[in-house]
Amino acid sequence: MTKVLIVDDEKYVRMGIRGETDWSLIGCEVVGEAANGVDALSVAEQTRPDLVISDIRMPKMDGIELAEKLMEKYPGIKIIFLTAYSEFEYARQAVRIGVSDYLLKPFQDGELEGSVQRLLHLHPNVSVEENELEDELIPLVKKENIGNRYVQTALEYIEEHYNDPDFSVGKLADFMSVSEGHISRLFKAETDNSINNYLTKYRIKKAMDYLKDVQVKVYEVAEKVGYQDIAYFSNTFKKLVGKSPSDYQKEGIKDIKVL
Questions:
Q1: What phi, psi does 110 have (nearest 5°)?
Q2: With DSSP H G I counted as helix, E B as strand and the rest as coil, what are the percentages for the chain, rounded to 5?
Q3: What residues pair up with 34 in beta bridges, in sequence order?
Q4: C-beta of residue 214 within 8 angstroms of C-beta of residue 249
Q5: DSSP-assigned letters across all residues of 133-177
Q6: Is the pLDDT of residue 128 over 50?
Q7: Each residue of 218-242: pLDDT tens digit?
Q8: What's the predicted TM-score (pTM) here?
Q9: Cα 16 from chain centroid?
């Protein structure tokens, strides 16, 4: 579980964030609260949060100073600012110095959860280990490691057309002005995958990225990656990933054994 610290000088704002956010759904737990930056530093020392959700304007120590001290003391900690419209540019500048994200008050239902999900799963400083595990789970060749220009072109075509539900090796071959057999043999030799198998892996890998946003529905993800049959998509996903799309969306890659 990702440990979260909530910092805001308004008690009812803290209560609202804590009580109205589905923390368990996004793999988080609230480990503490504070009304200002000074108290937040003390609570952070005791709880060692992974993520701090903080107001900018607070007494004793504002959010900017708090963020600077937290990032210096706990490298890798993530911070989301809550800001009024009048402080909008202030918050944008804070992002440039390392603050992870900001939300304008009052934010809409689901906005905070979405921000946390994107941050924890997609931010390069948070999910490096997770991304490495996913790369091991579904390994895909890198174009720069491929010497054959036909196979490079085929990989580029897959990247651009993976979401086409009518994708076919025939379409790819016509695009490249080669025979299906020729490009299939070259592709298999260079990637150790058939074109269709590689396409499936690429689609599921893209689906994993989409599912990291808790606001996206599984059927929407299926459509985004070229599947019209959600049951077939779900079965394929579970076969490659080891858990269903909905379970992966809730839990991420944890508890999945990479062989």
A1: 90, -15
A2: 55, 10, 30
A3: 7
A4: yes
A5: HHHHHS----GGG---HHHHHHHHHHHHHTT-TT--HHHHHHHHT
A6: no
A7: 998 999 999 999 999 999 999 999 9
A8: 0.55
A9: 25
Q: Tokens 């993520």 identify what position?
A: 51
**Residue predicted with more confidence, 106 or 88:** 106
pLDDT digits (tens, 9 = 90+) for 64-104: 888 888 888 887 788 888 887 566 666 666 666 567 777 87
Convert the pLDDT of each residue in 130-150 to its tens digit.
667 888 889 998 888 898 999
Determine contact, residues 126/118, Cβ cutoff 8 Å.
Answer: no
Q: Tell me, what amino acid is at 185?
A: R
The set of long-range contacts for 12-21, using a CB threshold of 8 Å and a minimum separation of 24, is: 13/55, 13/82, 17/53, 17/112, 21/112, 21/113
**Block residue for tokens 């990032």:** 71
Residue 238 tokens read as: 């579970």
Q: How far apart are CA 196 and CA 134, in angstroms?
A: 20
Cα torsion angle, 10, 14, 19, 22, sign:
positive
Cβ pair 63, 56 in contact under 8 A:
yes
Name the 3-class secondary structure at 189. Answer: helix
Q: Which residues of 120-156 are buried (b: 16+ CB within 10 A; e: fewer)?
A: bbeeeebbeebbeebeebeeeeeeeebeeeebebbbe
Backbone angles phi, psi at 216, to 5 degrees: -85, 135
Closest residue by Cα to residue 89 from 102, 76, 79, 78: 102
